[in-house]
Request: fold
Amino acid sequence: MVERLPDEGKIWYNGTFVDWKDAKVHVLSHGLHYGSGVFEGIRCYATEKGSFIFRLKEHVDRMYHSARLYKMDIPYSEEDLKEAIKETIRINGLDACYIRPIAFYGYHHLGVNPTGCPVDVAIAVWRWGTYLGEEALESGIRCTFSSWRRIDPKTLPVTAKAVGHYLNSLLAVLDAKEKGFDEAIMLDSDGYVAEGPGENIFAVKNATLYTPEAESSILPGITRASVIELARESGYEVVEKPLTKEELLTADEVFFTGTAAEVSPIREIDGVRIGKGKRGEVTSVIQRKFFDVVNARDERYMRWLEPVYE
Ligand SMILES: Cc1ncc(COP(=O)(O)O)c(C=O)c1O
Reply:
């Protein structure tokens, strides 16, 4: 399930393309010591109409939003970064890939205050399959409530997709794997459901969708926003509200959303079977719609797709 990174290709690094093996940082880079970086995870899909990046603008917007929250000045415009992302895919000759842009404080001095450190920017792209496994998209995964709570907005700006925040996710993932589960579900500091370590979560009850609201310490996912829109357009009611553990355990269906996880059903949480213990009806509808959209089969949502090779 865990795919090793490739060892060849070109990486965009501070405005130029370098060989994969040469895209290195100094061990005394600020970002390595203090987690001072922001990044994105984006997908490019190979479709019958060509290669398209899903919601590129929204991802790049979020990266600059994350940087702003950490007072980090990315030395490129959003337009330049979007162009660089497309060029990186083209130069690597890929039709479908995962895209990882990152901006971090680089090598200059060491000390928590980053003022004076350069902001280094890199973009890597590589072929990538399904994150939780092909079978997960069909049969669903087994999750556990993590004993680690999701980071709290009183401590860190949770809407930033920042490097250091992922220590929280790392603990939750390790916890889940050690207990024999596929993935963790984290609660917020008030005990309400927040999200997975790299996914947002939805529950379905009587054909209404429920998802934790922004106040539940979530990263506002771009897949989450897309699924809310697709579900409403399909005639489902979607309610954003604080969700309890009990509501999740007694839901008819539960699923994760995310760039990596796409739309992944959850069939069990801590030994409790969710609904029928397999992908539910509403999840199937949402999943089908989502894959139609990302695969350029729905004309109405071509506005979410950025062509790579024009
Ligand atoms: C903590 C966390 N929550 C949610 C998500 C889902 O966000 P998106 O749908 O934008 O990928 C991600 C992935 O980026 C994440 O890392």
